Amino acid sequence: MNDGSNVTNNSAAYDSTVGIQAETVHNSNVYFIHPDASPQEKYKVGVQFLEDGVPSRARDMISDAIAHGHDNAEVRFHWVLAMLSARAYYDLSKEELQRLHKASGLVRSYPEGEWKDALRVAFELLAMLSTAEGGAGRVLERLRALHPRQRDAILRHFDLVLTGGLKDSLWAETCERAAAARFGNDRIQRVWAYFEPDPIGPRALPPHPSTAAAAQAALPVRAGLFVVVAALPWILALVADPAAAVIELPVALGAGLTAAHFGRRWWYEELQLRAKNGESRILRTGDPTSPEDGFTNRVRHSFDHYFGTRVPHGFAPYEWLDHTARIRNNLVAEIALLYRESRVGVDRINWLIRYLAEDARDRHNKGTLFDQRPQDQTPVPAKLLCVVALVALGITTLAMLGTVASGAGAPQTLLAALAVVGAVLSGRAAASSWLEARGEEHRLAEETKKYQERLAARQDAYRNWKSFLDATRPSEQEMETWLTCDKTLFLDQALRHYQLTWRDLITHTILMTPARPYRRGRVKGGPWRYSRYSFRLFLVTQDGVREVSTEFDFTDAKRGNEQRSNYRFDALSSVQVTEHAHVRYDLELVLTNGPARNIRVKDADMHQLAPDENAQEIDEIDLSAAGFIHTFRLLEGIAADGKGWIERNNPANLPSFRVAD
After folding, report:
1. Are 204 and 10 spatial neighbours (Cβ–Cβ below 8 Å)?
2. Please, which pLDDT band fits residue 2 given cuts at 50, 70 and 90?
């Protein structure tokens, strides 16, 4: 659970494993263009892919732009970078080598400018692979003279191509730039936001539908019956003693109207209190039948976490949790009811739970946590007047019966008594309909106002959190830059440990796999990025393979659990990759002098794909970004041919490039 403070909390019981903690796919159109897009637009998207560490898609997009006529020195420069990014020279097919050679002959046809200079330097660096290093000084001078944007792009994307003394001359500068950029753009304070899911919009429970229509429909009949029945005792009293009846009728009417006026609000409050008590019982979330891993329980755990960290001054966390138990139970039930959807994770509504916890703390500080609008409660004098009016109505009714009895016979008295009973019953029914109709109107207006206030407050909280998240979340280019710096410095540390220079290396590769527990995120169309990685570096020398692995926390750039091993070329007997359908990719290394080693390359993500994403394409992007394709080809070649593979793929034996001035 992450609260935006760069601290991730998780727990696991004994002998259990914390796996994928959270994952999210950000909705971004940076990689998506219309099918009828112009070559210029496709080129721009291709460059974006390249800068964000997805060279396979960059090759496709830029090649498509060139095929449709968008070709100049700048386009060709990025095309060359895309062709060689994350690839060694021997990873290129014959067709790709031919295309590179053809492109090298086109350099002279482009107008002079900084992009032509950068393109010429790129091909001159490729030409240095198969020639003596005596002319490297001139090429390096031209490389250093380029604009930093172009120079850094060449060094980054030619990482697996440049070797030997040429790279030795550049390595110190490369490491210096990596160390300077590693924590740039406030990395430590912003990385967490990349793995934070896009929040789902605010919701609030709307008012219950009004039942006033049914009550209003029944009111005329009940009121008419009451008038007819209530008029009979007064008529009999008027016949028996007109003087007394004239006094009793206004008193009865006044008492009745007074009781109705002051009793309506009182009745409504009692009705609301009973409804809230019943609702509180219904909304209890401690139902033992709910599954422990259910959505409601995950919501409850999140509420417990945020209420336990948003504690008013003077409270211990456990005291505050006990003090707010009823409020939390009701909020848990509300949120679970509003967001109970199969594809809505609790991590997407943590912003709302956090806001509700902070709101409860703030209301406690203001003294209104349990305040239910005391200003709207019926004052005691009004309740007293209602009771007095009812008593007066009862006394007046008895007096009216006495008037009938004193001036009429027994039949009239019995009829008056029955009429009073009927008036009480019909009056109660009419009053109930009238109170329900007026009460429902009042309730609906009051609850609608509260609903709008709650929703508006939650909308403000949502906008604030969304804006903060959008402003804090790193871009794909920033994430890729930080990751490249981390790989560079890890590689430099390994070279220093083994006291190796680039002249001693034949080739190298880094395989990046997720390290559990981790959080992961990506933009639509882009590769997964992880909060924790396992870096596995293979250094290939004439004496064999040196392997260094370490776990790496991307959120703070700290490494740990480093392991090293060395083996000869003939010790690597086989390499194979296993795809477990819809589950994961595993790489298996089999050594002649030890057990097989299984490396989890990536987890499945079929359930995280958008409808317009291609599963195979995303898999290829992920595997390429992890360095898997290059690593697998290298280890597979060594396992098959041993040292013969190294000799056969020596850059000195490959055809060179010639760039005309």
Report:
1. no
2. very low
The pLDDT of residue 478: 95
Residues 169 and 232 in one domain: no
* 443-452 per-position pLDDT tens digit: 788 889 999 9
User: What's residue 284's pLDDT?
Assistant: 44
Identify the band that residue 377 occupies on the pLDDT scale cut at 50, 70 and 90: low
Residue 177 belongs to some domain of the structure:
yes
DSSP string, 515-546: -SSEEEEEETTS--EESEEEEEEEEEETTEEE
Tell me, what's the pLDDT at 245?
64
Examine the pLDDT at 193 and tell me if it is beyond 90. Answer: yes
Exposed/middle/buried for residue 14 (C-beta within 10 Å: 0-12, 13-18, 19+): exposed
- Residue 277 exposed, middle or buried by CB count within 10 Å (0-12, 13-18, 19+): exposed
Residue 598 phi/psi, 5-degree rounding, is -100, 130
Sheet holding 558-567, edge to edge: 505-514, 532-541, 544-553, 558-567
Q: How confident is the model at residue 374 (pLDDT cuts 50, 70, 90)?
A: very low
H-only helix segments in 108-186 = 114-127, 136-144, 148-157, 164-181
Name, of 185-199, 238-252, 363-377, the range with top average pLDDT: 185-199
Q: How far apart are CA 585 and CA 603, in angstroms?
A: 7
Which stretches does DSSP call E strand in 342-404?
none
DSSP secondary structure of 178-208: HHHHTTGGGHHHHHHHHTSPPPPPP--PPPP
Q: Is residue 659 in some structural domain?
A: no
Specify the pLDDT at position 382.
65
Which of residues 476 and 371 earns the better pLDDT score? Answer: 476
Q: Which amino acid is residue 406, in one-letter code?
A: S
Phi, psi of 209 (to 5 degrees): -60, 145
- Per-residue pLDDT band for 375 (boundaries 50, 70, 90) equals very low
Domain boundary (469, 492, 511) is at 469
**Residue appearing with tokens 């001035």:** 661
Residues 182 and 225 in one domain: no
pTM for the whole structure: 0.77
d(Cα 2, Cα 347) in Å, to the nearest integer? 9
Task: Say if strands 20-26 and 518-523 run parallel, antiparallel, or are unpaired.
Answer: parallel
Tell me how crowded residue 15 is: count the other CB atoms within 10 A of its CB: 5
Neighbouring CB atoms inside 10 A of 29's CB total 9
Identify whether the C-beta of residue 413 lies closer than 8 Å to the C-beta of residue 237: no
Q: How far is CA 605 from each of CA 133, 403, 527, 550, 610, rounded to the nearest angstrom?
A: 46, 89, 11, 24, 10
Percent of the chain scoring above 70 in pLDDT:
76
Predicted local distance difference test score (pLDDT) of residue 151 = 92
> What is the DSSP pairing of strand 558-567 with strand 544-553?
antiparallel
Q: Which domain holds residue 485?
A: 25-196+476-653
Q: Are residues 506 and 463 part of one domain?
A: no
**CA–CA gap between residue 448 and residue 444 (Å, rounded):** 6
Within-domain flag for 459: yes
Q: What is the DSSP letter of 569?
A: G
310/409 same-domain check: yes
First to last CA, the chain: 59
Domain boundary among 444, 469, 494: 469
Q: Can you tell me whether residue 574 is helix, strand or coil?
A: strand
Question: How many domains, in total, are found in the chain?
Answer: 2
Inform me whether the pLDDT recorded for 370 exceeds 50: yes
Both 418 and 544 in one domain: the answer is no
